[in-house]
Amino acid sequence: MSSAAEQEAVRQHARAPRGAAVWPGAPTPLGARCRVGPGGVAGTNFALWAGGAEAVELCLFDADGTETRLPLTELTHEIWHGFVPGVGPGQRYGYRVHGRWDPWTGARWNPAKLLLDPYARAVDGEFALPPEVYGHVRDWPQQHVADTVRDERDSAPYVPKGVVVQDDDDWSDDRRPKTPWPDSVLYEVHVKGFTARHPGVPERLRGTYAGLAHPAAVEHLVRLGVTAVELLPVHQFAHEDHLLRRGLRNYWGYNSVGYFAPHAAYSSSGTTGQQVGEFKRMVRALHAAGIEVILDVVYNHTAEAGELGPTLSLKGIDNRGYYRLQSDARRYADYTGCGNTLHVVQPQVLRLITDSLRYWVTEMGVDGFRFDLAAALARSMHDVDMLSPFLAVIAQDPVLRRVKLIAEPWDVGNGGYQVGAFPPLWTEWNDRYRDAVRDFWRGALPDVRDLGYRLSGSSDLYAWGGRRPYASVNFVTAHDGFTLRDLVTYERKHNEANGEGNRDGTHDNRSWNCGAEGETDDPAVNALRRRQLRNLMTTLLLSTGVPMLVAGDEMGRTQGGNNNAYCQDNETGWLDWTLPEDPGRAELLALTRRLLALRHRHPVLRRRAFFSGRRGADGLRDLAWFTASGTEMTEPDWYAPAATLGLYLSGRDIPGRDPRGERITDDSFLAVLHAGPDPIDFRLPGPPWAESYELVVDTAREEQSAAPATVHRGGEVLTVAGRSVVLLRVGG
After folding, report:
1. Which of 372, 553, 587, 622 is catalytic?
2. Between the chain's N and C termini, which has fewer beta carbons within 10 Å?
3. 452-483 burial by CB neighbour count: b if 16+ within 10 A, else e?
4. pLDDT tens across 321-358, in order?
C-alpha cells in the first residue's frame, strides 16, 4: 500500500459484492493481494501461474460455503490474473483449473477439484482426504490404473480455502538479534509440543504461536542460553491418508501444502488471517529476548504424494510444470521417499520457493532456514549439482544470502549424500559428528581418528572454499530418532504405537541401553544412564562448531523408545515439564545451562577459524591431543584402539580480532574424554602446557554445583572415573 489512506480504504471492504465483473488486474505479485484499483476502488488482485491450463476460475466462498465462480480471462506470461473490486481481508477462495486429462503425458487437470493457491498466505480448514479430494477415482477396482480414471465429484466441501490477508504490518520496531554463526546455539523445537503441557502457559494458548511467545516459554529459552529456535515445519501441512485411517495425525509437519501460510492449527486467535499476525507477534517476542527464529522448511516435496495421492494444489494447477516426472510421465521421480519431488530446475518452481523464502524473511521476520532433504533441491536434471539453479539463485539473492542457511545435506536418491559438499554461505547438519560421538560413548569406535575431526570442527569436511568451523551444525540427537534419554535407555526402536508393525524408523540407532532395555528400577543402571547423558551433552557443548539441542533433551525427555514419533501428536511427542522435579533431571538441566554459559564466556570454545596445529612462539599448539600418559599423540596413537582422548584448547592466540581490532585471547582448557568402563590415571601435561589446572566440570559427579574448584599441578596424575568427561581450566 502506498499510503495510510489506501490502507484504510482496503479495511473498509470486508464483504465482497457478488456478480461484479473481474477487472484485468496485474500478473504480479502472484497470489492474492489487497490493493486500491482504478478510480480508487478497493479490492484484491489475484494472480496464478498455470502454464498449460486452458482456463482458470477464481472461486470465492461465503461464510456458509456458498461458492461464486469468476473466470480469470487475462493471461500474461502463463499467469492468469484479475482484480475483483470489493474483495478484502478474510475472504476465502480457491481455484478451479481447466485442461486436458491425460495422465500418460503427465497432464492431470480436473476442474472438479478446488485447488489451494500456492501463494495463499493463510489457510482456513483442514485436509480430511475423503475420496472426493482425489483427482482420480481413488477406490477404482483396478488399482494399477486407478490414477488414469478422472473423478468428477466436487472437492470444494472437503478442502480448506485460502484466505486473503491484509498487508498492514510494520517491522520498524523489531530488532533482529543477528547472532553471528560462531556464537549461535540452535534449539530444535516443535511449536505445539513445547507448550502443550507447560503449566506456566495459559491453557488456551498452549500448543500455539502465542504459547511459544508467552513469557513462561521464553524464560526457559533465555535461562537455558540458546540463541535460536529452529522450528519444526510451520508451513501449512496436511495429514497423510494412511495416518487418518489409523486415527493418527502428522505431528512433525513434513508434508507441506502451503509455502506462504503459517500452519493454522497452531493459532489461538483464529484461522481467517489471524494466524499471520499471531506468528509475527511470536517472532517479535523471541527477538525481544535475543532469540532468532529459524524455520525448518520442506521445499523438496508436497503433501500431494505420487500418482495415487490427492489433488490439493500444484498437481491440479500444472502437474508437469511443478513436479519431476519419470520417462513414463504417469509416474513421479521420487528423491524424497514421500512420493514426489518438486522440479526446482523449472523457473516457476524456483520462483515459488524463493518468493516464499523472501516472504518469510521480509514480511514474517524470520532469521533463517533449515532445508529438509536439501540435496533434492540441488539436483539439476538428475544428479546433485552444487552449481544448480537453486544454489546459484540463493547465492546472489540480496535478501536470502544474508540469513542463516542450514542444509540437511542428503536425500534418498542415488548420489544424494552430500555432507561437506554445500558451498560457502551454507552450514550443514553434520551426521558424521552425531555418529562418531554416539559410537565413542557406546564403545564402538575402532580408534579415535574420526572423533578428533568431529570435536575440532570437522576440518576434513569443511576446510575448503573459505568455509569455517561453524559450517558444521553438531548434533547428537534430532527430531528424527531417539531422544537423548532414549539413546541411553534403548538399543531397539519401539514404534508399535505408529501402527506400522514397528517397520518404520531407522534400525541404525548407535545407542546403548546401559545394561537393560527400557525403563528400570535398577539404581546402578539409572546412575550410569544419567552419567551418559552428562557425557553426551558435555561433549556436544565443548565441541567446535555450532551445537544443536533438541527441546527437552536438557531435561531428559523420553518418547518411550519411539525413534520415529512423526505421528505422535500426544504426550509421547510433547514436552513433559514435570521432569525437572526429578533431582537427576534437574541436575542435567543445570549442567546444560552451566555449559552454555561457559561457551558464551569463552571464545576459545566458539572459534571462527580452524585450528592449525602448528606451534607458536611459546612452543604451544593452538590444539594439541594427549594420551593418558600425558604425552602428545603420535601418528600410531590415532590408529590404535583407545577409549581415552585428551584435547588441549589454547586461548593464547585465537585467530581473528574483536570489533575494536584487538587480538582475541582467552583461557586455555584441557578436556579429557574417557569412554572406558574403568577408572584411568591421566597424567596432566606439565610446562609449557600448564603449571596447574582448575577443575571446571566432572561428569562423574551427580551434582556439578557441589564440585569444588579443585586445583591440580601440571604433571600430576588425575584419576578419571570410568565413562566420564573432565574439563579443566589451565592456570599458570
Report:
1. 372
2. C
3. bbbbbbbbebbbeeebbbbbbbbbbbbbebbb
4. 999 999 999 999 999 999 999 999 999 999 999 999 99
- Confirm whether 372 is a catalytic residue: yes
CA–centroid distance for 332 within its chain: 25
b (16+ CB within 10 A) / e for 168-197: eeeeeeeeebebebbebbbbbbbbbbbbbe
| Active-site residue, selected from the candidate residues 318, 334, 408, 486 | 408
- Quick check: pTM over 0.90? yes
CA gap 314, 349 in Å, rounded = 10
Beta bridge partners of 697: 727
The DSSP 8-state label assigned to residue 17 in this structure reads: P
In whole angstroms, what is the distance from residue 62 CA to residue 470 CA? 51
| Residue 715, CA atoms < 13 Å, CB-side half-sphere | 5
DSSP assignment string, 260-294: EEEPGGG-SS-SSSHHHHHHHHHHHHHHHTT-EEE
Task: Please give the grid coordinates belonging to residue 327.
Answer: 520417462
pLDDT tens sequence across 143-191: 999 999 999 999 999 999 999 998 877 777 889 999 999 999 999 999 9
Beta carbons of 532 and 598 less than 8 angstroms apart: no
Which residues, 6 or more positions from 572, have their beta carbon under 8 angstroms from its beta carbon? Answer: 497, 559, 560, 562, 565
The answer to whether residue 168 is catalytic is no
Amino acid at position 586, single letter: A
The side-by-side arrangement of strands in the sheet containing 724-731 is 623-626, 644-649, 669-674, 724-731, 692-698, 711-713
